[in-house]
Structures are given as structure tokens and as C-alpha cells.
Amino acid sequence: MTEVFIQISFMILIVLVVSFIMRLLKQPLIVGYIISGVIVGPYFLGILPGIDAIHTFSEIGIALLLFIVGLHLTPKVIKEVGKISLITGLGQIFFTAIIGYLIANLLGFNVITSIYIACALTFSSTIIILKLLSDKGDLDNLYGKISIGFLLVQDFVAILALIIISSLSTGQNFLSSVGFTLLKGAGLLFILILISIFCLPKFQRFFAKSQEFLFVFSMAWGLGIASLFYFIGLSIEIGALIAGVLLSISPYHLEMSSKLKPLRDFFIISFFLLLGAQIAIINIGSMIVPALILSLLIIIGNPLIIMILMGMEGFTKKTGFLAGLTIAQIGEFSLIVVALGAKVGHISNEILSLITLVSVITIGVCTYLVLYSNKIYHLLEKYLSIFERKKISEKRKIDKNIEAVLFGYNRIGFGILSSLKKIKKKYLVVDFNPDVIADLKKLGIPSVYGDIDDDRLLRELPLKKLKLAISTIPDFDTNELLIETIKAENPKAIVIVRAHTINDSMELYKKGADYVLTPHFLGGEYLAKMLKEIKTDGEGYKKEREKHIKMLTQRFDKGQEHPEVKKN
Fold first, then answer.
1. How far are the Cα atoms of 23, 40, 56, 172, 276 from residue 37, in angstroms, in the given order?
2. How confident is residue 117, by pLDDT bands cut at 50, 70 and 90?
3. What CATH number was assigned to the domain covering residues 390-557?
4. Is the Cβ–Cβ distance between 331 and 127 less than 8 Å?
5. What's the CA gap between 314 and 54, in Å, rounded?
6. In Å, how far are 216, 417, 516, 522 from 529, measured between CA atoms?
7. Mind listing the pLDDT tens digit for each residue in 305-322?
8. Domain 50-386, CATH among 1.20.1530.20, 3.30.450.40, 3.40.630.30, 1.20.58.110
9. Labelling 178: which of 194, 436, 464, 553 has CA 20 to 30 A away?
């Protein structure tokens, strides 16, 4: 036991050194974790401690990551992106599998091996993308929600693939095996929904009175539900995600998320270490050419498939592009499928090494693509118009007498819209989700489909007549552009934007924002109330602005980025 402790300590020291180098080079830490895995793996130092313990750490990290994501997936969000997530998820799997099979065949692999390679190429890394989106603060963005949706569709298909392979190797009846497992899952889910609706709300305040108790409850619920789903034959990942979704309607879901993030970050390192340790360095020479060819299919082909499918469904080129980049890699389920195929004798171990190498290459490239996606988009923006339906923007008609514009209709925007109605200003809602616009039009709410980053849209708005502009979109660059554009045309217009962090809030205030909405501290309800009282009075917003800056400064000095939970 002491020896394993020393090995783990030494391993963490290596992770620290490599991460420090990555930090100096301004590279993503995930790449550093994978490199650390290569160093401590069997082909270099060979000191990866107690492999069972590391696997357990990895599973805990994955469960916590998906549990936290579930806390952000309220039923309303699932309804909002469910249709497009299903279309893009299944569409990407279908087209990638066909193209992947043809390429594997051309590379000289036999039929069975080509099927396995095609299957492996269809599954992206939910874990890595969720980590990147969380680090960027984009989990609540439209493209982030859609990405989570189609990644979960992939995971469900991957689980079915694993059941098929297991059934073929053991001679079990596939339909009866899958049907019985899904039936047990549905029964467990029904029971948990009843508990979350009728039992949990009665104890929520009691849980939230103590930071420590809220932390313990969150851990017990998330890991406990994940274990239950694993026990009935489904995956830990699905169980952890459902556990989070069931608590997403709790008023304390943000507190739970903030409490668990440091623990998640520690345990998830094990996943990346294992990934790096699996790279078979000795065979890399013979695998490099097919690995590069397959990697290009994933890095270029997958984003193109997503952009085409989302463009056909009416989404903007930016949303399609950002969502597409998240799928430019293969991940854990790809490795699991191929490893199981090798274990039952369908394919050789060399194919496992090949897919692992493709995974590392694509993950490394995709990490940069996602982290710098906005900058990449602005470089390629003019070439991406072919992925956007032009008819929607061409038919767009905007009333030139509007006085207020709400950019982004979501759970925050709903309350704000009610206030706009009450202050009797002629308003317009702008959103880049075509399904949202369709619903708003059915309700008779003035709305148009469009993206703030679209110069044409901003030019069509009567900026010089605007008295109030509100953005509930959390993207910093987008809000910065909005402030600069509106203030240049109309300095007297009241511009209210949203920020994810205190630092971003302060920067947006410096850029000229009249008020910055920070949902972690002051929610949409506060802004809705403020709109009713202040309306478009510039002096009123100036006072609120000064009060808000003072409050944020005090919280920043205390090291807070999230609201505190009351202590006993």
C-alpha cells in the first residue's frame, strides 16, 4: 500500500512538471495529462501505479464529470435541443461509419476489421468535450447544449454496440438481452423520477444549510445512482448523467456543481493518464500512415457532416461550425469497442494500438480547435456561408420602430421578456435557434432568426432608435461586439449583457456596458424586476452599475466565482 502511495505521489509530481511546461507554452493542460500518461506508461518509466486503483480513479472522475453536466441539463434544455441532437447524432454516426469502412477497406484491412474501425471512428469523447466546454464556460451556449446532446446519442449507440459484441461472443440472444436491460433501466428511472419529484424537494433546504452536508449528499446521489445503473447492466456514464438531470431542477444545482468541480478535476486526470499509457510506441512506425489518414477523416470529415446537417435544419453557420469542432476526435467508447473486439478474437491487438494512436492525435488537435474555436471561426467565416440556409435571412423583416431588442430567448430571457411587455416598449426577440423562433411566432411574439455575429443582422436593426438592448448570450466576444456596435451608433442606448465570470463582467463594464447580468450572483429575476422599476432611465442604470461593480469587487477579493452556501 505504501509503495502504491509513493508511486501515485511521484506520478502526480510528473503531471505537475509536464502541466507547468504546457502552461508556459500556453498549451491546454489536457495535452499535458496525456503526455504524462505516455511518460509513466510501460514504454518509458513504467511506474503507472496500481492499475486497478487508477481505473477506479478514472471512473470516479468520469462519473463526477457527467453528473455535473447533468446538473446543467434541465428538462427545458433537453426539450430545446433534443430534436437537432438526435438528427445530428444519428446522421454523423451513419455517414462516418460508411466513409470509415470504405477508407479502411482501401487501406487493405479485411471486412471484419474494417467494420470495427468504422464503428470506432463514429464515437467521440464525451468526457474530453464536456471538460473543454466546462473550462470555456460554454455548457449553457446553444452549440454546447447541442454538442452534449449528440454526444449522448453517440454514447447510447456505443452501449448498444458493446451489447451486440458481447452477445456475439457469448451466443446470447441480442434482442432479449437489450430489451431486458432497457426495461430494467426504464423501471429504475421511473422510481428515481418519483423520488426526485416527491421526496427530494422536502429535504433540499436541510441539505443546503451546510456546505459539507451538501457536498456529501451530492457525492452520494451522483455516485450512488451511477452504481445502480451499472448494476442493472447499463453504463456508469448514463447513470451519472441521469443523476445530475434529476437534480437540475433543484434551486441548489449550481452550488452542487461548484462544490464537486475541484474533486472532478483531480480524478479525471487518471482518465487522461490511462489514455496516454495505452499508446504502443514500439509499433508506431507501421501505424503512422493509416493513423494520419483516419485522423484526417475525423478532424475534417466529422465537422463537415455536422455543419451540413445543422445547416439543413436552419441553424447558423457559426452554431454549426462550433458544434462540429467538438466532434473532431474519437474517445473512450471507441477504445472500449475495439478492446472488446480484440478480447473476443475478432481483431488483432495491432488494431487497438492503431485506434489508440488515432484517438490521441485527434484529441490533441480537437483540444486546440475547441479552445480557439471563436478565433478559427472568424478566420473562416466567409467560407462557411454554404452551410447556412440563406432563405431564412433573406425573408427576414424587421420593424424599424422597435425600441428594445432581446438577444437570446432562454430561461433567463423568459422573465426579461415579461418585463419588456410591462414597460410597454416595442420589442423584438433575436435568437439563433430556429426551433425557438418557430415557437415564439406561434405565441405571437415579435421575433427573428439571426446571430449577433452576423453583420447583416446588426445593420438591419434600427440601432439609432434603440433605447434598450439586452443580451442573455454568455459569450464574451459576442457581447463585446454588441456593446461596441450599438454604442458607436447610439451612445445613449442602454446595453445590458451577460457574463460568466467576475473578470468578464469587469471587462464588459470597461467596454461600456450599462449593466452586466451575472446569473451566479444576481439572476434574471433581479434584472426583470430592475427593468420594471428603472425602464430606460440612464441614471438609474448608472446607480445599479456602480452598486454591482462594488459587489463583484468584494466577491472577487474574497476569491469567489460562485455563490456561497450558508454554513451552520
1. 17, 5, 16, 37, 4
2. very high
3. 3.40.50.720
4. yes
5. 44
6. 35, 11, 15, 11
7. 999 998 888 788 888 999
8. 1.20.1530.20
9. 194
